[in-house]
Amino acid sequence: MAERQSNAPLRAPAGAPSSGVIHVRTRLTADFTVVANALAQRPGSAVTVGVAIYILSLPDGAPVRIDALCEHFTEGEILISRALRELEADGYLDRRRERGPSGRLRTRTFFHDVPPGDGPEPPQPPSPPRPRRSEPSPPRRAPEARPGSEPEQGPEQGPGRRPEYEPEQGAEHGPGPAPAGEAAVTEPAAPADPAAHPGPDPRAAVILASLRIVDRRLILSRREADRLAPAVTQWLDQGVSPEDITAHLTERLPSPLRARPARILAYRLRELPPPLPALPAAPAAVPWQTCDGGCERAFRAAEPGRCRDCPPDAGLATAC
To answer: Bias category Pro residues: which stretches (predicted)?
Structure first.
């Protein structure tokens, strides 16, 4: 009888890998998020995957602005904005400009767990059956001409009539070739209207050129200023003052700048909401006064006196 081996395995190996990660899974019944492997295993930046999974875990209506994401993550504004641009390019993030009930433009954010077009395509409806083409009838043989008689002319080819397939040289088919010895005359093109392509708004150009006075790093070329001018003009049309635009573009800039100033300014003009214009102060109400002329009528005036229906004071009339 064989002796019992103390070092023999108690059971056969279960097929666990000898290297790499081994998952210890727990069945979750609450507080979990379903993430597609295509997003969780997305090659590239880990910040992009982390931002995407964090947005998927948020409830509907939660803010996903740059400042809100920067408060949660330790990365700065540049990395967070780059991650959002990559998610938007892949089709996960969809930002739409809509006009609210008050008439102001606002940006609404939609996040897809699977980009549109990557999921299973719906079955296509069957195409209708094509009608069967009838076989052409054999050409009709013309009767033979009798000796001493003229051949008969059909209605389609009469004397002096051109075939139907031969195009006419008219306005629909363009002018025909010029006769020999004559040069084709072409009309000169009309000059371009300068008002059709207006230049940048002078107000926006002044605001962008004066940014380097506040921060010497914000030096823009002529092409960059022309590119940013339409967004500044849109803010001006919404009632934002030039001082508020300058403060919005120059406050809390990173140090040092890791991107060109034009890219940072373009991001702030496009993504960050503009400051609300200050409402004008309501005019002070004129107090009520009681007429001193005896009618005791109430009227509005800055100082006590008489109403316009009562005669002026006798002492004032004598002094005049």
So the answer is: 117-129
Rounded distance between C-alpha atoms, residue 74 and residue 260, angstroms: 22
pLDDT given for residue 96 in this prediction? 86
| Model confidence, pTM | 0.37
Q: Which residue type occupies 6? A: S
Q: Give tens-digit pLDDT for 247-306.
A: 888 888 888 887 888 888 888 888 776 666 566 666 777 788 888 877 878 878 888 888
Query: For residue 95, what is the enclosing H or E element?
Result: strand 93-99
Phi/psi-derived region of residue 294, left when phi > 0, alpha when psi is between -120 and 50, beta in every other case: left
Q: Residues 4-20: what's their mean pLDDT?
A: 65
Query: Where does residue 55 fall: left (phi above 0), alpha (psi -120 to 50 degrees), or beta otherwise?
Result: alpha
Closest CA to 203 of 236, 228, 231, 226: 236
Nearest in space to 208 (alpha carbons), one of 276, 200, 278, 256: 200
Sorted by where each starts, the structural domains of the chain and their CATH numbers stand as 37-111 (1.10.10), 199-270 (no CATH), 288-313 (no CATH)
Decide if 300 contacts 288 (C-beta within 8 A). yes
Measured CA to CA, the distance from residue 274 to residue 105 in angstroms comes to 10
User: Using DSSP, how many helices (H) and how many strands (E) does the chain show?
Assistant: 10, 4
Over residues 94-115, the pLDDT tens digits come to 988 888 788 888 888 899 988 8
Q: In a 3-state reduction of DSSP, which class is residue 234?
A: helix
Alpha carbon distance 220, 208 (integer Å): 8
- How much is the CA Rg of the chain, to the nearest whole Å? 42
| pLDDT level of residue 164 (50, 70, 90 thresholds) | very low
* CA atoms of 306 and 297, how far apart (whole Å): 9
Q: For residue 151, is it left (φ>0), alpha (ψ between -120 and 50) or beta?
A: beta
